[in-house]
Amino acid sequence: MKNIYLFLFLFNVTLSVGQSILLPSENIRNAFEKQYSKKKPVWTVVFGKNETDVNFASKIHV
Q1: CA of 46: how far to CAs of 37, 38, 50, 56, 60, in Å?
Q2: Cα distance between residue 20 and residue 54, in whole Å
Q3: 12 contacts: CB under 8 Å, gap ≥ 6
Q4: How far apart are CA 38 and CA 15, in angstroms?
């Protein structure tokens, strides 16, 4: 039983470490702040048809 718990724990840790957080580049954030200076954005990642196509969309958090 201990082995099962140990395996599940290590499996969960490796999945958690393997994920990275994608953030928009600084020029995208600066352009958003310039246009909406007093708003706080909530960024979401939108993937394109290819694996390398990554787009960022933002919603204004009120």
Answers
A1: 24, 24, 11, 6, 16
A2: 14
A3: none
A4: 36
Farthest-apart Cα atoms in the chain, separation = 57
Q: Which pLDDT band, with edges at 50, 70 and 90, does 52 fall under?
A: confident
61 close to 41: Cβ distance less than 8 angstroms: yes
Tokens, residue 41: 């954005």
- Strand intervals (E) in 1-62: 40-47, 54-61
pLDDT in tens, 2-47: 889 988 888 887 776 655 667 788 998 999 999 988 888 888 888 8
Phi, psi of 54 (to 5 degrees): -125, 125
